[in-house]
Amino acid sequence: MSVIVIKGTDKKNARLIIELAKQLGGKVSGLSDEQYEDIMLGKMMDEIKTGIEVPKSVILEKLK
Fold it and tell me: Who's near 14: CB < 8 A, 6+ residues apart?
């Protein structure tokens, strides 16, 4: 299964893309801005993973 996320600003163009995806047999689902932000945050986190483990106490100290 492949997933494509297209974020558009023009509703007319978005409707055209949605209709094309449906005609090609794809399923179309909408995302709220919050859901989109969550996906992008997860993508950024994956990209900058260092593999370094940090003790819980250090994290809690930084959060104070």
Answer: 6, 8
